[in-house]
Amino acid sequence: GQNIDQPTEMTATEGAIVQINCTYQTSGFNGLFWYQQHAGEAPTFLSYNVLDGLEEKGRFSSFLSRSKGYSYLLLKELQMKDSASYLCALSGGYNKLIFGAGTRLAVHP
Amino acid sequence: DTGVSQDPRHKITKRGQNVTFRCDPISEHNRLYWYRQTLGQGPEFLTYFQNEAQLEKSRLLSDRFSAERPKGSFSTLEIQRTEQGDSAMYLCASSSRGSGGGQSNTEAFFGQGTRLTVV
């Protein structure tokens, strides 16, 4: 199986940096995705890691360590609009995604 | 192209009734997925189409559920004899197969979902 664990909730202050961790146990996967989902809306793609290391896209970065079964999403210069759920997902055959339960991030002024 | 569209956005039905949802993927995408999401959880994979072929079905998909993609474009998901436990958001996503040999990953684009409430 593919157990994916993320913290349920996190809070952070506007302008700060927050790191959302994702750990997993799996026999194999193609890559690891991070999606953002605002309440009542569709998940939207943030980042994708296939190799170990850091991928940076503007205010968002994602890191993967396959040997440690660990990934994180780093959000910099937090804005109020970043309040959302952040979903970690492993991709397997046919790009099928196996999601964690998500982390609800609340950004406060 | 405006992205993945799903219809209806909301559906309320009585237990035991049949319901059908439609998904129109991004036009050049040959891969189409259905997921189900309940409150506080991530989406759960239900089934996958490559063009018109249904190549994978989750064990979550009971025999009351059926999905089709008859011409490799839009897809429908039907739930027969609905139960209260079927209440959830049903999400459709599409992606394109990456270029080159083998399986490469490209991001999946999700529709806004159909929220089903069974009363």
List the helices and strands and how they pair.
The complex is a heterodimer of chains A (109) and B (119).
Chain A: E1 3-5, E2 9-13, E3 18-25, E4 31-37, E5 44-49, E6 53-57, E7 60-65, E8 70-75, E9 84-91, E10 97-99, E11 103-108
Parallel strand pairs in A: 2-11
Antiparallel strand pairs in A: 1-3, 3-8, 4-5, 4-9, 6-7, 7-8, 9-10, 9-11
Chain B: E1 5-7, E2 10-13, E3 19-24, E4 31-37, E5 44-50, E6 53-57, E7 65-68, E8 75-79, E9 88-95, E10 109-110, E11 114-118
Parallel strand pairs in B: 2-11
Antiparallel strand pairs in B: 1-3, 3-8, 4-5, 4-9, 5-6, 7-8, 9-10, 9-11
Q: Name the overall outline of chain A.
A: globular
- Which structural category fits the helices and strands of chain A? mainly beta
* Main sheet characteristics of chain A: 6 strands, mixed
Largest interface: A-B, 25 and 27 residues
The gross shape of chain B turns out to be globular
C-alpha Rg of chain A (nearest Å)? 13 Å
Distance between the termini of chain A: 40 Å
Q: Please state the average pLDDT score of chain B.
A: 91
SSE run of chain B: EEEEEEEEEEE
Q: Would you mind describing this structure in some detail?
A:
The complex is a heterodimer of chains A (109) and B (119). With 109 residues, chain A is mainly β. Helices cover 0% and strands 58% of the residues of chain A. Chain A has strands at residues 3-5, 9-13, 18-25, 31-37, 44-49, 53-57, 60-65, 70-75, 84-91, 97-99, 103-108. In chain A, strands 2, 4, 5, 9, 10 and 11 form a six-stranded mixed sheet that branches. A five-stranded antiparallel sheet of chain A has the order 1-3-8-7-6, with no helix packed on it. The termini of chain A are far apart. Chain B has 119 residues and is mainly beta. In chain B, the strands form two sheets. In chain B, strands 2, 4, 5, 6, 9, 10 and 11 form a seven-stranded mixed sheet that branches. Chain B has strands at residues 5-7, 10-13, 19-24, 31-37, 44-50, 53-57, 65-68, 75-79, 88-95, 109-110, 114-118. Chain B is 0% helix and 47% strand. Classes of the chains: A mainly beta (109), B mainly beta (119). Chains A and B meet through strand 4, strand 5, strand 9 and strand 10 of A and strand 4, strand 5, strand 9 and strand 10 of B.
